[in-house]
Write a structure and sequence with these properties.
Largest interface: A-B, 42 and 35 residues
CATH class of the largest domain in chain A: Alpha Beta
CATH superfamily of the largest domain in chain B: Aldolase class I
Distance between the termini of chain B: 50 Å
Radius of gyration of chain A: 23 Å
Oligomer: heterodimer
Order of helices and strands of chain A: EEEEEEEEEHEHEHEHHEHEHHHEEE
CATH topology of the largest domain in chain A: TIM Barrel
CATH superfamily of the largest domain in chain A: Aldolase class I
Strand content of chain B: 5-15%
Largest sheet of chain A: 8 strands, mixed
Number of domains of chain B: 2
Number of strands of chain A: 17
Largest sheet of chain B: 8 strands, mixed
Number of domains of chain A: 2
CATH topology of the largest domain in chain B: TIM Barrel
Number of helices of chain B: 18
Shape of chain A: globular
CATH architecture of the largest domain in chain B: Alpha-Beta Barrel
Helix content of chain B: 40-55%
Chain lengths: 420, 482
């Protein structure tokens, strides 16, 4: 787990910074330090020197000594600095496997398991910041993600941002997370299609094979029809589409129906991501409604995956440890949850496939499957000296150890305590 | 952030029917389907709820909404999805006439009792196709709109006129020099005349072979007699040579069910597996040509064939379950219609009819038929499906003749009596040649039709296996999408 945000050790700033988004470049004179590059330089503004070592001598100008736990930052990375110089945010990292820009916290869905709970307040500065980050990113960057909240709530400014990515970063893969509803407006979808160019994909969730389940999960009446309509519009416009399904107690029992629905109704999509529940934000709050042992949907997830794969739809399984998946579908499991999230349970040290396993989100400390156990290379559980209760699931024996999962309570002031 | 109050799942209240058809498959099983090929299998009590729109079961409502059998009042996507699915289902229709069968000779060294053609065993070439007729047939081939053109050489024994095959292949490739069509070639042959020259030519032009294997050696040789009683040996030798020279995928085999086959589906399937084939097509015997004359066709009925088929299918499923991957082709054709938005490209089980629209047959004498069976009917004195001749007709004359269009229209399943309200129609097809030859009418009276009975038996069989057996669901999905 790496920290994406930190407090500066030292911030020697004479006046508030006139720019707050910078690309790091190795300093030509002060070794081990970075000079900060911004888009345009306002009159009279010289960006501070950034270093992660304390022993900077003879530096006359503004100086920021960054937090030690962010010393992973490298030349080419893009960061945000608060105007007082006291806080640093890693916004884009060349070494990162997942670089996603949060565009807004506003959303017209209110998904029960949202890891980024919506807030209804103006945060347009996030969009301005995204324009800057994209301008500063190296042209050969592999990938950039845009997410929210719901990015399309910005309407034409969202389209401008997409166009900005495509003109500034022509070879960078662009992945957008959206609830898809705005695309049900064909003129908006067409505008998007005119800007998206090559290498742009939009990931859109479907949480049911019919409206009532989806609308319940996203807590918005009419959302399902708009989302499906949006997907159809994007499909008609030849856009790259990913469908995302988060698996929890409400959706997992219907995953076969959902897969069949996608295969029959939306077979033109490029890929489907089947994702485990992340213990963040509202998911923790609504855990009583949402928690299901992955092993309880093991067979259904295998069947759903095979339906999608047979229909030629590229399928990925995220956020599932291999011991919670049917070995028949291990090949669809994506190893990396993300480079700042992977962690493993102590029992995993005995596992033969731990090297191929994605492990856990850091947030799994708030709860994870109680059926994590070391397995042999063919998926058979390793019993070792443990004496653990077993259940029989379709001729394969799976072990479980029960740990009670406790949902977090909202604290007294109604805030959910989250460490992000 | 303040936690919003959670709105509970709203159970659909006001729902209505979308157009659907239903068929009672048994006392407690009702198949419900729609024009786009969506289907659900309900029990009697569930169906009553659907029929009366009085639902005791929310999950049933959701199932029916998901499959577009029901619609809610304020729904805004189901209509669009249904029309898209229907359009997808019939998208291949403009790709007219992709299969072109050249009957290059009627000569044959075999005298199979079920042969659908009056074979000629003379050495004279009077029953060979002439180059002039073949060249005219190619004019027609390249006039058809399909981007995929498959030219299949049949006989008699097609390889007895290999010289013509060579010229047709070379000329067809010359005409496709711009690569605008995906051109492929198949030689249907008993493989007896196969030699180095033929293999070399086939390799050079990526030609596929289709041969006959009826089952184990004894059964095969009884069905397919030739001097020396060695048809099996020669066919399997030929298969081995083709695989060695061209590769495993370049030869496939078909079986024909005779009375002798009926009690040994397992042995037939084992034979295919032993010979290294990964698919078996358990085919029924068609009531044409020599099969009628020798009464081979009347020695067993449709029911017996279906018993044979069911035994064979179950055996194939068990083979797969124990790790031997083998596909039953007829099941895969039905399953494609059931599980994919596609009516499939199999000319004998599609509607509008695949005869003519999907395939044309150029007889050795230049006459053009809507299907191979149509050519066989002609051998029996009935020229109902003769569309014209390469000497006098162009593609459009053949396809747009009033007589042929009447056949297409009269046999179109969605508007045929009894088919139009049948829940299995989206998974079935039209066979005007069969119904004409068995009932004297291209539409046919379906309760007396073996064609209808086969779909009405096999589709429910497949649906039950799909519903009850997780292994079958995975297997069938793979077969449907292969």
């Amino acid at each position: 787990m790496i920290e994406l945000r930190g407090r500066s050790e030292i911030a020697q700033i004479r006046a508030p910074l006139k720019k707050t988004v910078f690309r790091l470049e190795d300093h030509p004179e002060v070794s081990g330090s970075f000079q900060l590059v911004s888009t345009g330089t306002p009159r009279g503004f010289t960006p501070p020197l950034l270093s992660f070592s304390q022993d900077i001598d003879n530096w006359e100008g503004d100086l920021i000594i960054g937090p030690a736990n962010m010393s992973y930052l490298k030349s080419g990375d893009v960061i945000g600095i608060t105007a007082d110089g006291r806080f640093l945010d890693a916004l884009w990292r060349g070494n990162g496997t997942t670089n996603t820009l949060l565009l807004t916290e506003r959303c017209d869905n209110y998904c029960l398991m949202c890891s980024q709970p919506p807030r209804d307040r103006s945060d347009d500065w996030l969009l301005d910041q995204a324009f800057e980050v994209i301008s500063l990113m190296p042209e050969n960057a592999d990938e950039i993600g845009l997410s929210g909240g719901e990015p399309t709530l910005y309407g034409s400014r969202f389209i401008e941002l997409v166009a900005h990515v495509r003109s500034t970063l022509p070879v960078t893969a662009l992945h957008i997370l959206s609830n898809g509803r705005r695309f049900s407006d064909m003129s908006f979808a067409s505008e998007y299609a005119r800007s998206s160019g090559d290498g742009t994909m939009v990931g859109i969730p479907i949480y049911g094979a019919e409206y009532s389940l989806h609308d319940y999960v996203v807590q918005a009446a009419g959302a399902f029809d708009e989302t499906v309509d949006g997907i159809l519009n994007l499909g008609e416009l030849g856009q790259s589409i990913e469908i995302r399904v988060v698996l929890h107690a409400l959706t997992a029992p219907h995953i076969v129906d959902i897969a069949r629905y996608i295969a029959r109704n939306l077979p033109f999509v490029d890929q489907v991501a089947l994702m485990g529940l992340e213990m963040m934000g509202l998911a923790r709050h609504n855990l009583n409604r949402l928690w299901i042992e992955p092993i309880d949907y093991l067979e259904d997830l295998a069947e759903a995956t095979q339906i999608l794969d047979s229909h030629g739809i590229r399928t990925y399984i995220y956020n599932h440890q291999l011991c919670t998946l049917h070995p028949d579908i291990w090949e669809f499991a994506v190893k990396s949850i993300s480079d700042w999230k992977n962690e493993y349970d102590p029992v995993c040290s005995d596992c033969d496939v731990v090297a191929d396993c994605g492990g856990f989100f850091h947030s799994a400390k708030y709860g994870s499957s109680s059926s994590i156990f070391p397995v042999l290379a063919d998926g058979t559980p390793k019993f070792g000296s443990r004496s653990i209760p077993t259940v029989v699931s379709d001729s394969k024996i799976w072990s479980r150890r029960k740990i009670p999962l406790v949902p977090v309570e909202a604290s007294e002031n109604g805030q959910i305590d989250d460490d992000h | 952030m303040t936690q919003r109050e959670i709105a509970e799942q709203s159970v659909p209240k006001s729902v209505n029917w979308l157009p659907y058809r239903f068929e009672r498959l048994s006392s407690d099983e009702v198949l419900v389907s729609n024009i786009a090929g969506e289907w659900v299998l309900l029990d009697g009590q569930q169906f009553d709820q659907l029929a009366t729109l009085s639902f005791a079961d929310d999950d049933l409502v959701k199932l029916l909404l998901a499959n577009h059998i029901l619609i809610t009042e304020d729904d805004r996507v189901s209509g669009r999805l249904l029309s898209l699915k229907l359009a997808t289902r019939i998208r291949q229709l403009p790709e007219l006439t992709g299969l072109h069968i050249f009957v290059v000779t009627l000569r044959c060294d075999h005298s199979c009792e079920y042969c659908q053609v009056s074979r000629k065993n003379s050495n004279s070439t009077e029953h060979d196709m002439s180059w002039d007729d073949a060249a005219r047939a190619l004019d027609i081939v390249f006039s058809s709109p399909s981007t995929n053109l498959k030219i299949e050489f049949q006989g008699g024994e097609s390889l007895l006129n290999f010289e013509l095959i060579k010229r047709v292949v070379v000329e067809a490739k010359r005409r496709n020099i711009d690569g605008s069509r995906n051109l492929s070639f198949v030689i249907a042959s008993n493989l007896v005349p196969l030699n180095e020259e033929i293999l070399t030519f086939a390799l050079e032009h990526s030609i596929y072979f289709s041969t006959s294997i009826d089952g184990p050696e004894e059964l095969h040789n009884s069905n397919r007699s030739r001097p020396g009683r060695n048809s099996y040996q020669l066919a399997t030798d030929g298969i081995a040579s083709i695989r060695k020279t061209l590769g495993d995928d370049y030869v496939s085999a078909l079986m024909t069910t005779t009375e002798r086959s009926l009690d040994q589906p397992e042995a037939i399937i084992d034979e295919y597996v032993r010979l290294g084939f990964n698919e078996v097509f358990l085919r029924f015997l068609s009531p044409y040509g020599h099969a009628v004359k020798t009464r081979a066709i009347s020695r067993y009925g449709n029911r017996q064939w279906m018993d044979f088929y069911q035994r064979g299918l179950k055996y194939i499923i068990e083979l797969n379950r124990s790790g031997t991957e083998v596909v039953e082709v007829l099941a895969s054709i039905y399953l494609r219609k059931l599980l994919v938005n596609d009516c499939g490209g199999y000319v004998d089980l599609t509607t509008p009819t695949g005869a003519g629209l999907g395939a044309l047959v150029y007889n050795y004498d230049g006459d053009v038929y809507a299907s191979d069976e149509g050519r066989m009917l002609r051998e029996m004195g009935d020229d109902s499906f003769k569309l014209g001749s390469v000497r006098t007709h162009r593609y459009k004359d053949l396809i747009l003749s009033e007589r042929f269009l009447d056949v297409v229209e009269d046999s179109y399943a969605p508007s045929s009596p009894m088919c139009s309200d049948c829940a299995l129609e989206p998974f079935c097809g039209s066979d005007p040649v069969f119904h004409h030859s068995t009932q004297g009418d291209v539409t046919g009276f379906k309760p007396l039709s073996d064609f209808c009975e086969r779909t009405m038996t096999l589709v429910p069989l497949l649906l039950r296996l799909y519903r009850e057996d997780r292994f079958c669901r995975d297997l069938f999905t793979r077969w449907a999408t292969r």
